[in-house]
Amino acid sequence: MPFRKLGKTDIEVTPVSMGCWPITGITSINVTREQSLATLQASFDTGINFYDTAYCYGYEGESERMISEVLGSHREDIVLATKCGIHWKNKVQQRDARPETIKQECEESLRRLGTDRIDLYYLHAPDPSTPIADSAGAIGELIQQGKVLTAGASNFDVAQLNAFHSACPLTAYQPHYNMLQREIEDAQLPWCIENDVSVCVYWPLMKGLLAGQLARGHQFEDKDGRKKYPMFQGEEFQKNQDFIDVLRGIADDVDRPVAQVVINWTMQRNGITAALCGAKRPEQIVENAESMQWTLTESQVAIIDQAIQDRGPIVSRGAV
Ligand SMILES: NC(=O)c1ccc[n+]([C@@H]2O[C@H](COP(=O)([O-])OP(=O)(O)OC[C@H]3O[C@@H](n4cnc5c(N)ncnc54)[C@H](OP(=O)(O)O)[C@@H]3O)[C@@H](O)[C@H]2O)c1
Q1: How far is CA 120 from CA 150, 165, 169, 170, 220, in A?
Q2: How far is the CA of 99 from the centre of ligand 1 (A)?
Q3: CA-atom Rg of the chain in angstroms
Q4: 98, burial (CB in 10 Å: exposed 0-12, middle 13-18, buried 19+)
Q5: If residue 153 lies in a helix (H) or strand (E), which one and from where to where?
Q6: Residues with CB under 6 A from ligand 1
Q7: What is the pLDDT of residues 107-126, one digit of tens each?
Q8: Chain-wide mean pLDDT for the chain?
Q9: Which of 47, 119, 231, 291 is most buried, with most CB under 10 Å away?
Q10: Does some domain include residue 228?
Q11: Rounded to an integer, what distance in angstroms lies between the CA atom of residue 163 and that of residue 235?
């Protein structure tokens, strides 16, 4: 397995990481607990060792609990990343990254995960009511206490990265990034390369769009969280489908699924350490893990890069 180091640490992770949001079923449809547990098991069986979850994945921490249930006995073989600073109140997300909240969420995540340490602990998103240095300081204290091995930040701009990094050195940064959402290439990505901070990206498959399985006429159910994102609507959706047709051509040439072409491209980008690939079915994560077994050629990458340029700017939206 082609392991990569996280930042300046000796922690080694697979470039395909299992994203543990869809298994909660909050925004994904037709998710069952049984399938979610089977997906985690299938992920481990592929050799993926990097698990991405958060305090707020599940209204009652279901994602962290399921990870513990399935992977608890393999604790020393996996790298656990979770996040703090967002919680639910009456099923509405609240940002709260005050030091006392972070410390309390950390204790609860440790309990749910059934472990004595979190390997990578991210601040999920900046809390406008709390100075970033205060939140970072709290994570620094947790590192001092051995409850957390190393720190990360998600959904930050460069000023926020600098503020965090000055108070507590960062090992990883987690933004959204995929073929069509490359905003971080202007500032955050160069900053991370310069500072030896790993970039672990979410939405490599653009919430499933870039897996190429959704038909042009796909009708999204009301419960499907993707319905509210412009990239799945009207003309934007059709332009994205035109772009995916190019990927479908490459997938046919290499006799691989479109999802693997997309994850492969992502993993190869300069400065990208890991692609956090969400899955809700065992076969999806098995397929995604196989992206680690082959490599796109330079000419295929060039065709993709041209198609991205031809697609032009998309109507983009972040997760938080
Ligand atoms: N830090 C943050 O603020 C933040 C925000 C969002 C996500 N994340 C993290 O990043 C991870 C990835 O994001 P994500 O899960 O939202 O999106 P994603 O990885 O871009 O897409 C995942 C979805 O794509 C579809 N899919 C996956 N593999 C497939 C395959 N081989 N073939 C066909 N369809 C496939 C599935 O949806 P369907 O089967 O329903 O089509 C799956 O739920 C999350 O799980 C989470 O750990 C972090």
Answers
A1: 5, 15, 12, 10, 35
A2: 30
A3: 19
A4: middle
A5: strand 148-154
A6: 19-22, 28, 52, 124, 154-155, 174, 202-208, 211, 213, 259, 276-280, 284, 287-288, 319-320
A7: 999 999 999 999 999 999 99
A8: 97
A9: 291
A10: no
A11: 39
Residue with structure tokens 């498959």?
A: 205
Shortest-distance atom of ligand 1 to CA 212? 33
Checking if the pLDDT of 142 tops 70, the result is yes
The enclosing domain of 106 has a CATH number of 3.20.20.100
The residue-averaged pLDDT of 234-242 equals 95
* Furthest-apart CA atoms within the chain: distance in Å: 54
In a domain, 230, yes or no: no
Q: Provide the number of structural domains found in the chain.
A: 1
287: left (phi over 0), alpha (psi -120 to 50) or beta: alpha
12, two tokens: 């080694």
Report if residue 272 sits inside a domain.
yes
Q: Which atom of ligand 1 is nearest to the CA of 280?
A: 43
Structural domain span for residue 46 = 4-211+258-294
Distance CA 56, CA 109 (A): 10
* 232: in domain: no
pLDDT reported for residue 1: 65
Ligand 1: nearest atom to the Cα of 53: 47
> Is residue 316's pLDDT more than 80?
no
Q: pLDDT-based confidence at 320, cuts 50/70/90?
A: confident
The confidence score (pLDDT) of residue 315 equals 84
User: Are 25 and 31 spatial neighbours (Cβ–Cβ below 8 Å)?
Assistant: yes
Torsion sign (Cα): 235, 241, 243, 245:
negative
